[in-house]
Design goal:
By secondary structure, this protein is an alpha/beta fold. The protein is about 45% helix and about 15% strand. It has one domain (about 5-60, about 105-350): TIM Barrel. A hairpin with a 5-residue loop joins strand 3 and strand 4.
Length: about 350
């Protein structure tokens, strides 16, 4: 099978030749793997590991004082007016939010006066050529991110003020969600048109879970967040595209809602979070939802042995992929403190597995 066939077969809950694979690691992790393997580019690394997915998206061409749609990777001021600054630990560095530009907004009028970004600041005419290059030497499953509607909304206001808005000032919360979701939906539609049928999976993202459960109550999520998330799932499902959603943490109470909205692939499985262990997910949703991740990046990958990592990869394939429907990957970005041997063991075990 080609990579594209392998992924799409699994998402149809049929057995491919082997489980699909995806690699997601920090820049430091990628550099460490390239050095260890003697490879020169990230694409060479993906080929070596057997990763089946590739990612494309709009290209920022807007005002020069902004760094792009999000400052998470580059740092600086993003198109939303959110300021990002670097922080570091012993192993790597990240950009974190230094200023929430709408933190002091007190009325709906304040929000309406804000300088909101335009989809016109992004180019999409490169997408067809980029996809064509990814299909050499074989077709890959092409993923288009559609934005993080909830996170961008609270990044603008600050988490606590935005959560308070949902309860005490729902008109303000709804206005921000409308502006953010509308921006992402329009940019996604433009990207799909430019890609001319080259996109296989649309990928929405926003963390609604934490280690012990949901950030907001299921009732509040259904009242204020679900209608806007539906705009980034259901229309694209109706177009015949596969849909993928990323959230960290535990959010078992609303997964049925996500399935009803048209979700195909749940990303990732964070096994240490409440209710998100593989056996429970299969019991509740097996056959109706495909699963991504599950290789524990909190304890197993950094602190386990290569043999333990290999055994867990095989267990997850058996539990979640017995009838297809499982993409092998880490439960979040692979951090640079994970031993190279453990990363390679995970990919080797899945790459050599045969259904």
């Amino acid at each position: 099978m080609t990579s594209r066939e392998r992924v799409l077969t699994a998402l149809e809950h049929r057995k491919p030749d082997r489980p699909p694979l995806n690699y997601f690691g920090t820049a430091e992790t990628t550099a460490k793997l390239l050095k260890h393997l003697g490879l020169g580019t990230r694409e060479e690394l993906l080929g070596y590991l057997g990763a089946d997915m590739r990612y494309v998206g709009p290209r920022y061409v807007g005002p020069a004082h902004f760094c792009g749609e999000s400052g998470y990777e580059e740092g600086g001021l993003d198109v939303w007016g959110i300021e990002w600054r670097p922080i570091a630990n012993d192993f790597c560095s990240y950009n974190d939010i230094a200023r929430h530009p709408l933190a002091e907004a007190g009325t709906l009028a304040d929000l309406k006066r804000y300088a909101w970004p335009s989809p016109d600041w992004f180019a999409v005419d490169h997408l067809r050529d980029e996809i064509r290059r990814f299909h050499d030497p074989e077709p890959r499953a092409i993923v288009l991110p559609t934005g993080h509607f909830f996170e961008s909304s609270w990044f603008l206001r600050g988490l606590e003020p935005f959560l308070m808005d949902l309860v005490e000032r729902p008109d303000m919360a709804e206005f921000v969600l409308m502006k953010v979701t509308g921006f992402y939906k329009e940019l996604t539609l433009r990207s799909l048109e430019a890609a001319d049928g080259g996109i296989d999976i649309v990928w929405s993202s926003s963390d609604i879970g934490m280690q012990t459960g949901m950030i907001v109550s299921p009732e509040l999520w259904r009242r204020h967040l679900k209608p806007w998330h539906r705009e980034l799932l259901t229309p694209f499902k109706r177009m015949g595209l596969k849909t993928r959603y990323h959230s960290d943490g535990g959010f078992i109470p609303v997964i049925e809602d996500l399935i009803e909205m048209g979700l195909d692939l749940l990303d990732p499985i964070q096994p240490k979070a409440a209710g998100m262990d593989a056996d429970n997910l299969r019991r509740l949703f097996g056959g109706r939802l495909s699963f991504y991740g599950g290789m524990d990046s909190q304890e197993l990958l950094p602190f386990g042995s290569a043999a333990q990592v290999e055994a867990e990869a095989l267990r997850l394939i058996r539990v979640l992929g017995e009838s297809g429907g499982y993409v092998v990957a880490a439960s979040n970005a692979i951090q640079p403190d994970v031993p190279v041997e453990n990363i390679l063991a995970m990919f080797r075990a899945a790459r050599e597995y045969r259904y």
